[in-house]
């Protein structure tokens, strides 16, 4: 692993391990993520991808190792956890929008409660982000009135309303119908082009090739390949990655 100056690091992970009972999900993971880097995590189901990014904002508590986000170490210190979560946006497989709130209300809740923004300022910010992901015309609607693709774009806008420095995306298109996948991927591509630091778990290999600065291939709780996209797709180093890519291309 190349040495990276601390002031250039968005995320620093050293020796991260995590188990659920007797099942060892992550095995001594180490990873440096530079500010502005776009990293795609891929690999077979159960390889630890989602658990890894959930450890980056303490949605999962790691058993051992060190996790630093923007220079803040994630420990049991609740203040540190709050500071990191305030600056790290998270988009899940399922949209997790509040069904009893309008799109605009979903997007203003956290900025008002966590950032202390006044309602008018929060609404202006929310409308700006909804416009950015091309769903501003649906601001007064409820989630159930939107398609899956529109709901996921609202979830992305909601995360952006907190002005995050890092975005974590956990299979953001896996719950969508195929025709809705493209609109979400287009939104994420624009976000990447704006220079956001991103860690994205996905099986969308076309998106990975086009957007990622690095691709991490995980298997059995370990990062077994860490490569630039051209190298990963054209000359994977391991037989496991070759089999994975072969299966993905066949789909």
Account of the 3D structure:
There is one protein chain. The protein has nine helices and ten strands. The chain is an alpha/beta fold. The chain has a six-stranded mixed beta sheet, with helices on both faces. A four-stranded antiparallel beta sheet has the order 2-1-4-5, covered by helices on one side. The mean pLDDT is 92. It comes from Paraburkholderia sediminicola. GO terms for molecular function: ABC-type amino acid transporter activity; ATP binding; ATP hydrolysis activity. Belongs to the ABC transporter superfamily.
Outline:
The protein has 251 residues and is of the alpha/beta class.
Query: Rough shape?
Result: globular
The total number of structural domains is: 1
Radius of gyration: 18 Å
The N- and C-terminal alpha carbons lie at a distance of 33 Å
State the share of residues found in helices, binned by percent.
Answer: 25-40%
Query: Can you tell me the CATH architecture?
Result: 3-Layer(aba) Sandwich
Largest sheet: 6 strands, mixed
CATH class reads Alpha Beta
Q: Strand fraction band? A: 25-35%
Enumerate the strands of the largest sheet in spatial order, edge to edge or round the barrel: 6-7-8-3-9-10
How would you name the CATH homologous superfamily? Answer: P-loop containing nucleotide triphosphate hydrolases
Report the average pLDDT across residues: 92
Uncertain runs with pLDDT below 50, 5 residues or more?
none
- CATH T-level topology: Rossmann fold
Number of strands: 10
Number of helices, where a helix is a run of at least 4 consecutive DSSP H or I residues: 9
Structural class of the helix and strand makeup?
alpha/beta
- The ordered H/E elements are EEEHEEHEHHHEHEHEEHH
